[in-house]
Amino acid sequence: MVYLDLYKPLQQRIAGGTDTEKLLNFNIRYVLKFSEWKDTAKALINKRGKNILDDDNAFITKLGEYQTVFESEEFVDGEIINSNIEVKLKAIMGELLAIIEGPNMPLFNGSFSIKDLYNWLFSINHIQVAFGIQFENVNIERLSPGTRGIVLLLIYLGIDTEDTHPLIIDQPEDNLDNTSVYNILVPYFRKAKQHRQIFLITHNANLVINTDSEQIIIACMERQANTWPKISYETRALESGKEEICQILEGGTEAFEMREKKYDL
Questions:
Q1: What is the mean pLDDT of the chain?
Q2: ∠ CA(218), CA(219), CA(221), 5° rounding?
Q3: The pLDDT of residue 48
Q4: Residue spans of alpha helices (H) in the chain
Q5: pLDDT at res. 198
Q6: Is the dihedral of CA 74, 77, 78, 80 positive or negative?
Q7: How far apart are CA 251 and CA 113, in angstroms?
Q8: How far is CA 6 from the centre of its chain?
Q9: Of the residues 56, 60, 86, 177, which has the fewest C-beta atoms closer than 10 A?
Q10: b/e code 212-247 from CB counts within 10 Å (16+ = b)
Q11: What tens digit of pLDDT does each residue of 134-173 get?
């Protein structure tokens, strides 16, 4: 498929990437809007009397078989892996035609005719192509918010290495433990900042200190009576603003030292 050719350079980039990047996968799959397809047929058929769209009818049973075969896992990355599925689908379509043209020929609503039913049966409007990202073989929509954020950052920082535009990221540590922040995010930020400028809005010390930030911007808010608060910004180099940075990120020197004692490091 054309879609597979479009994704090929990206798949090659992932295959040659880090172990973490190799957990990513971009897939293409078919989505069958079966209910909508079935409802369209119901609109064609006269509701009076018994017809091929009664729930206990063989026609409905065959439609169910069509749905089961089509939605099987034999469709992988937009290709039919098992050619027998194509044979099965053709056989089911033949049986559906036999039912339509048999003694239970349906009555039609208004100006609809058997031609309209044929057009419906052979239409592919209910079949759509969907694109997805997987991480460790799990679709991105089923991942936790934190892991979903990791996947997006892997794409921005690890996969998309040609982009040199500045990147602004607001609190990438949300929903992540510090182990994931340090082991996964920090190395990617350190590598990505070699070829693009990155702005991080964060309160996480790992992302500020261990990424060797070139410049720290400290936002301060001073509340004032009967008016809007006063907000100011100060810039610091990492080396020259240690006390202020420690105050914001660690809770101050005392808090930092107390944790150090608790850990007994």
A1: 80
A2: 140
A3: 60
A4: 2-15, 34-44, 58-70, 84-100, 114-121, 145-153, 178-180, 186-192, 205-209, 242-250, 253-263
A5: 92
A6: negative
A7: 76
A8: 18
A9: 56
A10: ebeebeeeeeeeeeeeeeeeeeeebeeeebeeebbe
A11: 888 888 888 888 888 888 888 888 777 778 889 899 998 9
Rounded CA gap, 92 and 66, in Å?
A: 7
Low pLDDT (below 70) residues in the chain: 1-4, 46-57, 72-83, 104-107
Which uninterrupted H or E stretch holds 235?
A: strand 230-236
Q: Is 49 exposed, middle or buried (0-12, 13-18, 19+ CB in 10 A)?
A: exposed
Measured N-to-C along each axis, helices 34-44 and 58-70 cross at an angle, to the nearest 10 degrees, of: 150
CA distance 6 to 4: 5
Q: How far apart are the first and last CA of the chain?
A: 57
* Single-letter residue type at 53: L
Count of C-beta atoms within a 10 Å radius of residue 119: 11
Q: Is 25 helix (H, G, I), strand (E, B) or coil?
A: strand
Contact indicator for 167, 191 with CB cutoff of 8 Å = no
Q: Which residues of 79-114 are buried (b: 16+ CB within 10 A; e: fewer)?
A: eeeeeeeeebeeebeebbeebbeeeeebebeeebee
